[in-house]
What does this fold into?
Amino acid sequence: MIERALTGSKRYWGWIGTLVALSAIGSLTYLVQQFSGTEITGLSRDVSWGLFIANYTFFVGVAASAVMVVLPYYVHDYEAFGRIAVFGEFLAVAAIAIAGLFIFVDVGQPLRSFNLLLYPTPGSPLFWNTIILPVYMALNILIAWGALGAESKSVPPPGWIKPLIYISIPWAISIHTVTAFVYAGLPGRAFWNTAILAPRFLVSAFASGPALLIVMCIMIRRLTGFDPGKKALGQLGVIVAYSMILNLFFIVLEFFSSFYSSIPSHTHSLKYLFFGLEGHGMLVPWIWTSVALAVVGTVLLVVPGVRRNDTMLAAACILVFISLWIDKGLCLVVAGFIPSPMATITEYAPSLFEVIIAIGVWAMGFLILSILYKIAVSVKEEVMT
Amino acid sequence: MRDINRREFLKIAGAASIVGLLGGWEAVELLAPGELEAKYLAKPEALTARRWAMVVDMKKMDEAIAKRCIEVCHYVHNVPDIGDPKREIKWIWLESFEHAFPHRNHEHVAERLKEKRFLVFCNHCNNPPCVRVCPTKATWKRDDGIVMMDQHRCIGCRYCMAACPFGARSFNWGDPRLFIKKGYPGYPTREKGVVEKCNFCAERLAKGLMPSCVEASKGALVFGDLAETTSEVRGILKSHYTIRRKLSLGTEPSVFYMV
Amino acid sequence: MADESNRAINALKETGFFKPKKMFDGGKVTLGIIVLLVLVAFPFLYNKGKAAKVPDPKTDTPEIQGLPERERVCVEPKEYMRENHMKLLNEWRDWVVRKASRDYIGFTRKKYTMSLQNTCLGCHSNYDNFCNECHKYAGIEPYCWRCHVNKPKEWAAGKLREES
It folds into this structure.
């Protein structure tokens, strides 16, 4: 089926070419960083994780959201999602690729990555991440490829797909729970050491992933001969709306337990993020923008009329996606390091090199996504006619 | 005999090869001449303990002694002097009371505590979160209580730095050799991309020597076995009031401050 | 018999077997073949056909010369060390770092401290003429030396601040 990705319009090849160029620029910048003796990121002794790890966290969430399409369709026979199940699963594959690449470019000794498998440490959430993320990617690739292949030949999907699907559902929840465990079990970081971190992660994942999927599907409807279906997108929009409401509610809960108890270690990071602390407030405009976008996006999505209109649905989803990226892909990770263990404040802003490398990683992920989606769309276009 | 088709043949051949390779390899391992005599020994003069601990006597400690301790430690371990506070590497350094003990700080702290700066370094906790989170066991707790680093195995993920509640760990953001003015020939440097921290001078203990900071401290630092009831460290703890950093987090630090 | 082969050839001729045909993508294939030939020939052209110098690791350092003749042996026999020094160093590392043991009984029953920088380089202090001889020949650049100081005396004297 991969030959379907090798034929396409000029626009398709232009898009692929752009992504390849951005990936190449990102890769070269990464190599410069590896071979230079000095550090070119904005990271510091106090804020030792930044843009890369934050994006890894965010995109594991996007990957986990495939369950929001798989569960209703395969377990509860929600027919409308049948048209887009493959697109949700392919999105999970690309998102895991992005997450894995972000870890790779962040780690100080990437050539020693094999140590993660040579010296397994079951007590470490990061070790578990190295196992469960590739397995999840493999599950989704097998399920989607199998289903798509069967569809292209107009036969029912092969029998081995069913058990893989049933495994992938709890697996999706577990990958993002383990990602949350990376943060939630650290005694010195009170901002992350909260039981609601995993629920927050899951709920924002179930908002951001489907939001991205909706935008992708609307683009597919506009640019190709395949229509994912109004009902499917509308229902996905409902899922994003409910997830966003829960996410905003959880933020309110965080505020309550921190500020009502007034325990300094619980309040300091929230204060830094939302109001600034001791004259430092680099992230304040970012977090309030995220809140504003979240509220506007959620209100829009709650209105049924918006979900029926392509442009408005896409706009609302983009607002939600950007809001959650700022919240999870930037603020959450950085604010956990501020104040430092010595109760001092060292701020963080990604350097230009980090941004270029991040764009390169996103480009590689979208390259994978575009190729997979091209294959899926071409199969569906053929079958539907 | 039943006819065998090509597919079946390939399957059987593949399985047989795997079994043969694994079995042959195992046989070589099992039958290879073993090491009957011990080739690897601890040095007879090595200092051993069940839980190494340090007492910092703040009455004897002053700024000059503390600076000497830092200088000596960073010299014998080839710790670079980077200057930029964002990327500096420090195994041992000075902090004011409010920064060394933020959980004990308040507006009416005794003057004598506000006057002096405290020598801080890795606490070699008994319940170390950094060890729990390391995905490759590049940092682990030894039998003598030292939380050790294996720079060969570290992949530079910096999870341990996120986990340490005391900020004891530093990362080599760039090549450290560019910033080492006086090189010590008896110890390696580190390279870009690995984490490092105080190691309670494990390499000196193995040769029967006290940690460098302890030797330079003129008695202000007392190092000994916390598990040994008759040790000097235990004696001091019995008769003097001491505090530890962030005790409520449950990491069980092994560094005590006599205030 | 010549008659038969003539008939066979004529039959083939009629099918157009001997007519010159066009090669599909002929230009790209020829270009590819040329590129391949250049790539394959490159290593030979780069070295101008000369053979690399045979490695000749020297063991005549002042530290070794200072030992009596009988004691000029390594921790293990030369042949073993040549093949297995990396394996030995890995084992040494695990014993020193992880099992807190620093003494090693060599094959002559002599005790050594397990240390690349202090024991090995203590005798083999000529990194450029010893370790690097074979490593350069084999095209290996082991990264041991990014941490372990390969010239301790120059390091202490303030030289050797090279970038890794």
User: Anything to note?
Assistant: The first helix of chain C runs from residue 2 to 14. Chain C has seven helices and two strands. The beta strands of chain C are 103-105, 111-113. The first strand of chain C starts at residue 103 and ends at 105.
